[in-house]
Amino acid sequence: MKANININNLEETSTYLSILEGLEQALSDSLDMLFSHVPDEKEEHLKTVDIYSTFYELRRDQNKIFSLTAATTDVLKRVHKTLDTEINNYYIE
What we know:
Blueprint: H1 7-34, H2 48-92
C-alpha cells in the first residue's frame, strides 16, 4: 500500500517556490540595472565610461548578487529535499 502524501510538505514546497520566484526577480532586477550601460546591439561599441560604470556597479553589488544566489540555492535544496522525501514515501512505502 502506498503512503499518503503529506499535504503540509507540499504546501511548504509551494511557499518555498513563491520565495524562489521573489529571489529570482530580485536577482533579475539587480542584473538588469547592472548591465543597463551595455548596448543591446552587437554593432554598437561600448564606451570606456560605460565599461567603468558597469565594472564599478558589479563590484559594488557583488555581495548582493552572491547573497541572492546563495539564498536561491538554499531554497532549491529545501524544495528538492521535501519533494524527494514525499516521492520516496509514496513509492517505497
